[in-house]
Amino acid sequence: MARAPSLSDAAARTSRPHHVHAERTNLAGYLAARFATGGPVSVVEPDSADERGFATFLERYVAALPVEQAAIRVTHDAPNSLATKRSLQPQV
Q1: Contacts of 21 (CB under 8 A, 6+ apart)
Q2: Handedness of CA 23, 26, 27, 33 (dihedral sign)
Q3: Nearest-CA neighbor of 34 among 46, 24, 42, 43?
């Protein structure tokens, strides 16, 4: 009767360094050898509305970075100020 593979058997098979193979081939070859299943390949293109939504999100995110940087500066420059201490007090 064959022994069922254990979790440690699976870990031993997957613990070999993947970078060894990656150094001997290009990315396409590595991905094909490592992950190809031989099944059908499908390509998904992004929806144009999703692309526009992400572009809007990214613009707003980048525009808000100076606000976040200012908040970091204020809390870093005055960690013991009275205003900071009050803002950290639990509100009753």
Answers
A1: 30, 33, 34
A2: negative
A3: 24
pLDDT band at 86 (very low <50, low <70, confident <90, very high): low
What does the alpha-carbon distance between residue 43 and residue 41 come to, in Å, rounded to a whole number? 7
Dist. CA 60–CA 77, nearest whole Å: 26
Is the separation of the CB atoms in 34 and 25 below 8 Å? no
Higher pLDDT, 78 or 40: 40
Torsion of CA 57, 63, 64, 66, to 10 degrees: 150
Summarised one tens digit per residue, pLDDT across range 10-23 is: 555 555 555 555 45
